[in-house]
Write a structure and sequence with these properties.
Helix 6 links the parallel strand 6 and strand 7 (about 155-160). The strands form three sheets. The chain has an eight-stranded parallel beta sheet with strand order 4-11-10-9-8-7-6-5. Helix 1 packs antiparallel against helix 13, helix 4 packs parallel to helix 13 and helix 12 packs across helix 13 (about 315-345). The protein has helices at about 10-20, 25-30, 40-50, 90-105, 115-120, 135-150, 170-175, 200-210, 215-225, 240-245, 270-280, 295-305, 315-345; strands spanning about 50-55, 65-70, 70-75, 75-80, 105-110, 125-130, 155-160, 230-235, 250-255, 285-290, 310, 355-360. Helix content is about 40%, strand content about 15%. By secondary structure, it is α/β, with parallel strands linked by helices.
């Protein structure tokens, strides 16, 4: 009799199973951060340090539905922009988008996606489109027009990648894309991203050649003037930057350290979320990215001032595990945990989570000579 395999009951189960489904160098590309991965680890530790105070005898159910950047969503979650989904599953972003449609959450199409934005939009998912700052502004504008034509509901510009962070796992693996995986929205032919060199990351070399490190606030104003779509600015950690983005016409900002993949030593995103929320006020929505791994994490973000979160790596884990079905599992687990958490906190709906008290969870004093990570 064949052994019975229990379905995943949490995202850590999905992560563990997904690790067996992809080559080690691809797993490192997905999981890794920059430098010594201090910020990568800090994201998780900081979220774990936030305690939420339940209220009792509040009545009502737990309605998870909301709207993010004028897009209806079954829960305050959008799928973060991530490159090259075909690295972990042959159907790539089209499978992810089908899962997003089934779960009724927005899907952010990465500029470096391995399926065209038109193919992805045809799945019927509510899509946002991500942009990086390219040295060729004409090429950026062409992508904006394609996104509009394809029916994308928002533009998301990532502002924390003037250059790609130094990701040591990729350097040690001399990581390069296989020939079948390409950034088809930009370069349908093979590029530097496919040229393996010992001690180097081919993906980083590709972006270094294409991205513009000199982008400025004037460029953001230029982008705002190019489209009537809602504009989301992703990669903000400083309240003053968030306020300026709102002044430039951003409809939302994403508090994000790029999942620990850019400056190693940046603060955990959740620790600066309240400052960004205060700086922006009601001029723009505030979303949180980096380290979300459970429904409780979503509630932590809401209690600290976010209107929603972006989820990244867990989506790729689900995709690696079982394509669109695996991504649906990940999103279903998050919604179940979120609904349970709302009920246990005494919140009848998502908006009530903003009134939940968030407290720092005290850490024990380490014995002499012992340092916590």
């Amino acid at each position: 009799m064949a052994p019975v395999t229990a379905p995943p009951v949490g995202l850590d189960d999905v992560e563990r199973l997904a690790a067996t489904c992809v080559p080690p160098d691809v797993w490192d590309f997905v999981q890794g951060g920059s430098g010594s991965e201090l910020t990568l680890r800090a994201n998780r530790a900081a979220l774990d340090d936030v305690a939420l105070v339940p209220r009792v005898l509040r009545g009502g159910g737990a309605v998870t539905a909301t709207s993010l950047v004028s897009t209806p969503a079954a829960m305050p979650v959008a799928i973060a922009p991530m490159a090259y989904h075909e690295l972990v599953h042959p159907e790539g972003e089209t499978a992810t988008a089908r899962a997003a449609r089934a779960a009724d959450v927005p899907f952010t199409v990465g500029m470096l996606s391995s399926r065209t934005l038109e193919e992805i939009a045809e799945t019927g998912a509510n899509t946002w489109f991500q942009l990086y700052w390219l040295t060729d502004r004409g090429r950026m504008l062409d992508l904006v027009r394609r996104a509009e034509t394809a029916g994308c509901r928002a533009l998301m510009v990532t502002v924390d990648v003037p250059i790609m962070g130094r990701r040591l796992r990729d350097l040690r693996n001399a990581f390069a894309l296989p020939s079948r995986v390409r950034a088809v929205n930009m370069d349908p032919a093979p590029t530097r991203a496919h040229a393996r060199t010992l001690g180097a990351s081919a993906v980083a070399e590709h972006t270094r050649a294409a991205f513009d490190p000199s982008a400025s606030w004037q460029d953001l104003e230029w982008l705002r003037a190019q489209s009537r779509l809602p504009l989301v600015v992703k990669g903000v950690l400083d309240g003053a930057d968030a306020a300026r983005a709102a002044s430039c016409g951003a409809d939302a900002v994403v508090v994000s350290n790029h999942g620990g993949r850019q400056f190693d030593g940046a603060p955990a995103s959740v620790t600066v979320l309240p400052d960004v929320r205060d700086a922006v006020g009601d001029r723009a929505e505030v979303l949180l990215d980096s380290g979300i791994r459970s429904g409780t994490d979503i509630l932590r973000a809401l209690a600290l001032g976010a209107s929603g979160v972006l989820v990244g790596r867990p989506v790729l884990w689900g995709l690696a595990l079982d394509g669109a079905t695996g991504v649906e599992q990940v999103l279903s687990l998050l919604r179940t945990e979120l609904a349970d958490g709302l009920t246990l906190l005494g919140c009848p709906e998502v908006g009530a989570a903003a009134q939940v008290r968030a407290l720092p969870r005290p850490r024990p004093i380490p014995p002499s000579g012992v340092r916590y990570p």
